[in-house]
Amino acid sequence: MIRRAVLRMVGVGQIHSRDDVIRYLIKEGGFDILSVTDTSVTLCVPDEPEETLTLTGWVFSSSFRLADCVYDNTCPVMHD
User: What is the three-class DSSP state of 45?
Assistant: First the structure.
């Protein structure tokens, strides 16, 4: 569900980078971000910090910058 919501926001042009993804997860999702690596974002619900979820894939990686790949048509295919 989280991945699908993020991809939907990418699709409508509201999210363009991993920084946007993180802001969306905090502001709209109400999640705490526990860690960020080159390839993933780990989060939890504030009331249950022991229950974590690590999100991986292109939109959660440090290389995700939508504007960079749109212009040269090199964007990876996004799947939910």
Answer: strand
**Mean pLDDT estimate for the chain:** 88
Please state the pTM of the whole predicted model. Answer: 0.81
The DSSP call for residue 78 is P
User: How far is it, in rounded angstroms, from Cα 10 to Cα 44?
Assistant: 22
Question: CATH topology for 2-66?
Answer: Metal Transport, Frataxin; Chain A (3.30.920)
**CA dist., res. 66 & res. 63, Å (int):** 9
Question: pLDDT by residue (tens digit) across 10-29?
Answer: 989 899 999 999 999 999 99
Where along the chain do its domains lie?
A: 2-66
